[in-house]
């Protein structure tokens, strides 16, 4: 039967090409997402500044979080703890350096501290000169820096004796250039070296190190020394090889986690879409051969032989398609990764990987879809009895099988359950975590019963179509109803495209708009002062508050904290904002129900009312927290606030939260104008007051625009991945409709011989394409509504999503145009020749 399968493929080029396209694009997308996932799992970035040290030690970025109430836990039972990732850099104590020097096999230990600065308008990183050995940098000219001096890179254009202004930690200082150094390798960010005293002062973390480089004696086994170092540096990360890049570029590790999530969601969604599209294409191809398969049954072919032939054909096509996809997958994956880097989702230092595993996974997913689709497509033909074979070929196949019914019922039940959970349990934007998966369940459920639903929809739409289109529309309705299973093969991918695109895009636009509303509601500032050199000087607040026309000024710090007591099993990091007590009431509009934000000094916190209720805490009570860098702290509740549901943040004193962030300083200062002062005039006064400082001043519009930009990064990722899936679905829609229309050449010829003109045949085909598109659009809209409405009820207290109606109109317009073009163009080609030739030709 395999030999027969190869022979039939040569005579069935239309079905071959259609199946090949569907399998190829499905495997290509899955393989490219696999490359993104492998890149995220590896999280590799080539070390640059730390390349010379064979071993690098960094602070541990995780801590053990209990899965149950610590009061009932055995501290030695590690199974009841899980690692929680800290959002801020964990620094090391410099005292570890002397302990590491005593480790056997260690020849030298060098600590490294980096801090952002600018020289002129050029951003750079500051370091102590001692750490130059970690690259290694070597002096080209001049000497090592003393106090008040710096060593710069050759590319700076400076020379010994020059003066250079350095902006760091919100202040500008002048330094003398003592020397010029060069590096043996390319460095992403320029370096400026200081004396050890100046570096400790400017970094803001004296006695601390970002990383520690460990050098081994010649001939020592690096892995053996690494194990000994790990025994001394308890709780720290001890890295070798390419893993050292994470110590230098911690954003590579965080971005790697994001890539895993992005690739997992997009890849899983792509597999689901591929399953349906491939199954739809193969099912349509097999249906078009129903007469041929029936004849084979009638002349003695056994059911097993028939199934083997159909399966063999599909596997041959699938193997060819997946082989090509495996070759091209890395190119698409690398392009996608480049787009993520270009739009700030992943750092440029992260190395893209795509080995053999993503190709195997993509090929395996595609071949699994092919196998299942071919098995289902050949099963029905194999079950037909020889005496019924020819009759069966002339009628519409039974479509509602027990398997379809069960799968549909389970999916509709699951979608309904998720909708109930979304409405009854979820709050705010986190409702998307259940609303998102719901669209998949609704889509699968509808796909299982598409022929039946399409039959009902056609019956409803036939009257307006007949009224508008006359006899041509009537013929289109009759043809669609007679070949409802064939029509359903085209309706399903349209439904998937419309449903998935509408749901995902409107979920994203609604979340983005809600986040912007929450931000603009809470922030009352008329101007913002931002840092151009790693953070604002702590004394800038008093300086700005003294400017005429300023009603209040407050530092604005953002981070995340973890609740330790009272215990909360759902805590995975809660948003935290740091404010200056004297200006908090003036610059933010958060409603205070108990206490006063002016009491936010020392170790204190303002709890959102929902947290206060859940934790049974009020003003005067104590809460135990772990700050963003892992530092434990007990804070007193001094206020309870009422904030928009789903966007609650704990409020802290800025001088408590900022030192435990990576920057160590507030990145922004919010300023409120006095009632009688024009905000534009205030902005100009602030620019005059901060002249000469490494800051920039913007109005309220700039503040909101910066927040919108942060939100837009996440939205862009969603749009890119949804766009990929939609593009695949669009190709599959065109593929299915072209296959279905081209196979009707003989039918069109017979119509023309019985009196229909070519124009009438084309109008009929156009009405059929319109009916298919309209049915798919209706079903896709229902699928999208099943996830959007519950989410909007919870998050926005509305039935309708936030976002332009043009989004939906564009989606359905594209679906309708695609269906019409993919139907009319093949129909026009199929009716070009004489009707007699078409009527007497085969159907391929």
From TrEMBL:
Residue ranges occupied by any ABC3 transporter permease C-terminal domain in the UniProt entry: 265-385, 720-832
GO molecular function: transmembrane transporter activity
Coiled-coil features, chain-numbered ranges: none
Its membrane topology: Multi-pass membrane protein
UniProt keyword list: Cell membrane, Membrane, Transmembrane, Transmembrane helix
Compartments where located: Cell membrane
Matches recorded under InterPro entries: ABC3_permease_C, Macrolide_Exporter_MacB
GO cellular component, one term: plasma membrane
TM region positions: 16-37, 259-282, 314-336, 356-377, 405-427, 439-463, 484-507, 716-742, 771-796, 808-829
PANTHER family: ABC TRANSPORTER PERMEASE YTRF, MEMBRANE COMPONENT OF TRANSPORTER-RELATED
Family statement: Belongs to the ABC-4 integral membrane protein family.
Protein name: ABC transporter permease
Species for this entry: Amycolatopsis thailandensis
